[in-house]
Structure formats: C-alpha cells, structure tokens
Amino acid sequence: MRTRIKVCCISSVEEAMVAIEAGADALGLVARMPSGPGPIADGTIAEITAMVPPPVATFLLTSETTADTISAHIRATRPSTVQVVSHIAPVEAARLAAVEPHVRRVQVIHVEGPEALKLIPAYSPYVHAFLLDSGRPNAVVAELGGTGRCHDWAVSADFVRASERPVFLAGGLSAANVRDAIRQVRPFGLDLCSGVRTSGRLDAAKLRAFVLAAERADAELAGG
Fold first, then answer.
1. Is the preceding peptide bond at 34 cis, omega within 30 degrees of 0?
2. How far is 129 from 172, CA to CA, in rounded Å?
3. 203 has which bridge partners?
4. Which of 53, 66, 67, 157 is 20 to 30 A from 89 in CA distance terms?
5. Can you give the pTM of this predicted structure?
C-alpha cells in the first residue's frame, strides 16, 4: 500500500499548489495555536480550501476543544477534514461526530509514552483516523504540533498495530529518515512541516526528495 503524504503548515494558495504538484495527498492548514509554526488566518484557510482540487484533502488543524466550537471553526473554513490537535474529552468527540457527520475527523495523539495506546478505544468510535505527533499538551505553554521532534517510533508502531483506524505519523520527518519511519512504523500516512522548509518557506526540492524517498521505501516493502 502506498504511504500517503500530508504536507502541513501550508501558508498560501501558492504553497498549496507547490505541494500538490510535488505529489501531496493532503494539505494541513494550521489555525491559531498556543505555540508552534505556521498558523494562518481563518480567511486564508477558507481561500485555500476553496481552490484545492479533488482528490487532495484539506485538513483544518484546530485547537478548539468542544464540539460546538470545532463545528463553528469547520463552518468558517470549509475543509474536507478536521484535525483535532488537543486530547479533547471523548464525549466532545462523540458530539462532533453527530454534528459534523460529513467531515472527516482525525484525532491527534501526542506520544509521550506507551500510555498513548490507552487513548485508542476512547476515540476510535468517533474518528476516521489518528495522527501521532510529538507535542506536549500539558506543558506550561502547550505544544500541540510543529515541534520538529521525533518521538518513540516503537510506541507508534505498537499504536498502528493496535488501531483499527488508519494512522498518520508526524514529528521530525524528512527525506533522511522517511525510509526508517515507513519500515518501522508502517503508517497509513506521513505528516511533515519543518523537514521540507527552508527559512520557513516550503522548499519544492526538499518536498520532491521526501516524496521520492517515501516511494522508494514503499517499493522496498512491496518487494519484500
């Protein structure tokens, strides 16, 4: 199976087109966050989601934590998918599924240890996929993504094996380590931001190198 590629921290229509031309399956659009790179205004997010052609998916990264505020954020920006970056209460995840049944829902799990696996049954009934990241949601200033750090991929591999839902892997990915990430974790998709940027701007050459490295890793696995 081909590993999907989601390019996050898209800042403009121009960056969106660069990512799509390089082979991105999905674009991550970062709204207001307590910390981290790449936040853009909701109006810009809506502009990008309106022009992205199918089948490329648009992911709204929202730090809202209740179903009603997440729903309002979705309706203001019109993505195909919402990525909930906080460990929200499962009751809110259930309500979100009820009020936004036609939007794909992805729950971020910040992998700080093996206890991350305990969150699978809490969210699985209400989401379409998980995304494993390297944030620290309980830090003094919460880190909810965009850290550029890898986490323990052994835990991520266990999570993938235990989850009935597809799993994206994020955190510190680049062309240099994508082969190891795919071989060790076997994720449904990869999510990247800083690893394909130069001086904060999306670097088409770095992204093409990442896509090529991922394709080669997939081919190696397919060949045994």
1. no
2. 20
3. none
4. 157
5. 0.93
Q: pLDDT tens digits, residue range 51-97?
A: 999 999 999 999 999 999 999 999 999 999 999 999 999 999 999 99
Where b means 16+ CB within 10 Å and e means fewer, 190-212 reads bbbbbbbbeeeebbeebbbbbbe
Nearest to 3 by CA among 23, 17, 29, 21: 23
Whole-angstrom CA distances from 34 to 4, 66, 192, 194 are: 28, 16, 19, 18
Q: Which residues contact 128 (CB under 8 A, 6 or more apart)?
A: 81, 104, 105, 106, 165, 166
CA distance 8 to 30: 8
Domains of the chain: 4-222 (3.20.20.70)
Question: 218 phi and psi, to 5 degrees?
Answer: -60, -40
Strand partners for 62: 84
Residue 136, Cβ density class (10 Å: 0-12 exposed, 13-18 middle, ≥19 buried): middle
- Residue 93: both structure tokens together: 């995840």
CA distances from 199 to 6, 171, 175, 202, 203 (A): 20, 18, 17, 9, 9
Token readout for 163 is 């989850």
User: Scanning the structure block, which residue is given the tokens 């699978």?
Assistant: 120
In angstroms, the CA 222 to CA 188 distance is 14
Amino acid at 198: T
